[in-house]
Structure formats: C-alpha cells, structure tokens
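Researcher: Here's a chain I'd like modeled. Treat it as a single chain, no partners, no ligands.
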Amino acid sequence: MPSLGKAGCGSAGAYEQPTIDQFNFDHHPSRKKQKAVILGMIDLEFIHRKMDIILIGNPGVGKSLLAKTIAYASTQAGIKTLFTSAMDMINQLVAAQENNTLLSKLKTYQNPDLLVCDEIGYLPLGQQGSNLFFQVISARHEQKSTIITTNLPFAQWGTIFDSTTVATAIADRLVYNSEILVMEGKSYRKRA
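Model: Modeled as a single isolated chain. Structure tokens:
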C-alpha cells in the first residue's frame, strides 16, 4: 500500500530521490522545447494554485521520471504527497469497497496536496474502477493538485474507462486548470 506523508512519496517513489538533473533534456527536441515549462513545474507553484499536470506520451519517454521528480521535490518542500500507480490505487479502492472501508480509503487518495497517479491507460479500469477513479478526481478537482501520466491521448480515454461519458467527465475535470505536456520520441530506455 502506498505511504503518505510529508517526508516521502508512496509506492514506486518511496525510496527514490529523483531530481531534475537526472532528466536528459537533450534526449528529444520535445524535451528541449518544453524545458522552461518543465523547470517551472519544479518550483511547485502549480500546487499552490491547485493545478493539475497531465503528461502524455509513449512508454519510455520520461513521464514517470518527471512525475517522480516533481513528487520528490514536493516532499522535500514539506508538501503532503502520494505517488501511486493507477492500478494499485484502483486495486486498493476495490478491496476497500469489498470490506466496507471505502470512505476511509478514498480519503487516502483525496487528501494529499499532491497525488501522482502513474500509468493511466495501460490496462482498462472497468466499470467499478472507472467509477472509483472518477470519485477521486472529482473530490480533488479545484481542491488539490494531481499529476497523471498516460500513454494515451484524451481521444482514446474511452478505452481506459468504462464509458466515453465517464472518460469525458474525468478528462474535463483534469484539463480545466492544468498544464498538459505531450512528450515525444523513442524510449529513453532503448537509447543506443
């Protein structure tokens, strides 16, 4: 289960200390083009403005590293931060729904000043998962900041969520007050 607190990220980011100097801006022109915006995210002003960040791109282009970098900077600034994968969050919420602790578990994801939800789009969430994801995003909308990493553009979010209606409602809330970065290029992991 992801941890929560001012001192560290939960789940995948718990023991990492990623910093922006680990992000290679020379890997692809899209990184260079967006460098000022990316560096601006590290100042964390978006959290104070209750903005969201959506990082879109193919696997390996640096979305998760950038999200972890921002989350780590947030913890170092004493901001309540939670890092989780989309599937881990949904699995935790489904389990909580089954054992009647859903309201308490929803607060785990609704309360942090910054929630990073990594890897949206690799697996469909189904009706139950889609509804639970919507509850988290809806409660956070204009109240807290959320970072989403996804491999799919918004037009394909109907394949992640149970219906186009739910996908549209989620995307609408996330896009309303957000910074959207499309990260391009080949996988950094496959560089020669």
